[in-house]
Write a structure and sequence with these properties.
The structure holds 2 protein chains of 2 kinds.
Chain A lengths: L4 E3 L2 E3 L3 E3 L7 H11 L3 E8 L10 H4 L4 E4 L7 H15 L3 E4 L2 E3 L4 E2 L1 H13 L3 E6 L3 H9 L6 E2 L13 H10 L5 E3 L5 H9 L4 E4 L1 H4 L4 H21 L21
Parallel strand pairs in A: 3-4, 3-12, 4-5, 6-9, 9-10, 11-12
Antiparallel strand pairs in A: 1-2, 7-8
Helix pairs in contact in A: 1-9, 3-4, 7-9
Chain B lengths: L1 E5 L2 E5 L4 H7 L10 E4 L2 E3 L14 E9 L2
Parallel strand pairs in B: 1-5
Antiparallel strand pairs in B: 1-2, 3-4, 3-5
Classes of the chains: A alpha/beta, B mainly beta.
Chain lengths: ~260, ~70
């Protein structure tokens, strides 16, 4: 059964987008990425040290995965746009995971600047995937300016708190004209499965794999969870009801 | 000598172009995945030898790293 994730006309067989940060070491990262089945991995763009220049992580990732540079840490639209343009030059991709942070402690998105920066980047020819609030109106505005997907947060970045507002995520999924990628907050496999059951098209996971006790095993768990959640979504769950409904036949009961 | 702001730090340099600046800093201009912006505008690799630097220019030299 083929059920590809399609973003901006590009087809992926995996619905898991993986981060590359905070792994104990590079080999664990490579093993975990392989176990996750991901085809699209995120990277940051940073100033080089003026003293040394080491060979890039891209050398080990570039041939195996599609790269999705982010604008993490940017707090102004101007810096985020410049970071995206530097990423396009560096990695020769016009895809960008647009992050515009409005609070350095909470890492919450600054929606006002996010929409502005997304609009400008779309006009400059970028495929924009914005990290955004779990707000159906913000997501609609981002889709309206031409974002290729929206990436609402489940809960705070790196918190492992899961999906704090599943009803909002479900609403976003029901209304969004572009793919919805749950970003941030996933802590364990059931969170990823829930995201897919709520109707998300994909999930983005970094910390929950990288900081797990055994990242390789957690990556495999996430892969299974994303696949299970997606299948359950497509299968259609039974409605919830507040009364019992026996599954065994009620005719021919033994005794009186 | 020219005063520039390179990756957020004031620095004095004799370099007159982006390419000369990279060389002066010991950065291999042939290294893949480097990107440079001057005053907020990306300077394509092919333009590094010809892009002149002026006093007070803000230069960003970046490469990709791990990210989430």
């Amino acid at each position: 059964m083929t059920d590809p994730l399609i973003i901006a006309g590009t087809s992926f067989s995996s619905r898991l987008i993986a981060g590359t940060a905070r792994y104990p070491n590079q080999q664990v990262m490579l093993d975990a990425l392989a176990a996750s089945g991901t085809e699209l991995v995120t990277m940051s763009i940073r100033r080089i040290s003026l003293d040394t220049y080491a060979e890039s992580l891209v050398d080990v990732l570039g041939g195996r995965y599609c790269l999705l540079p982010n604008t993490s840490g940017c707090v102004t639209a101007r810096d985020a746009i410049m970071t995206a343009e530097l990423a396009r030059e560096s990695l020769e991709t016009n895809w960008v995971k647009l992050e515009l942070i409005g609070d350095r402690d909470l890492l919450y998105p600054d929606v006002e600047q996010l929409v502005h920066a997304a609009d400008e980047l779309v006009r400059k020819g970028f495929v924009v995937l914005p990290y955004c609030n779990e707000d159906p109106v913000a997501c609609r505005k981002l889709a309206d300016v031409g974002c290729a997907a929206v990436m609402p947060l489940g809960s705070l970045i790196g918190s492992g708190m899961g999906i704090a507002n599943p009803a909002a995520i479900e609403l976003i999924c029901a209304k969004s004209p572009v793919p919805v990628v749950l970003d941030a907050g996933i802590g364990t496999a059931s969170d990823a499965a829930l995201a897919m059951e709520l109707g998300c098209d994909a999930v983005m996971i970094d910390s929950a794999i990288a900081r797990a006790h055994d990242p390789r095993r957690m990556a495999a768990a996430m892969r299974a969870a994303v696949e299970a959640g997606r299948l359950a979504r497509l299968a259609g769950r039974i409605p919830k009801q507040n009364f019992a409904e026996p599954s065994s036949p009620q005719l021919g009961l033994v005794g009186s | 000598m020219t005063w520039l702001r390179i990756n957020g730090q004031e620095a004095e340099t004799a370099a007159a172009t982006v390419a000369e600046l990279l060389a002066a800093r010991g950065i291999d201009a042939k290294a893949r995945f480097l990107a440079v912006a001057v005053n907020g505008a990306v300077v394509r690799r092919a333009e590094w030898p010809s892009q002149a630097l002026s006093p007070g220019d803000q230069v960003e030299i970046v490469r990709p790293l791990q990210g989430g």
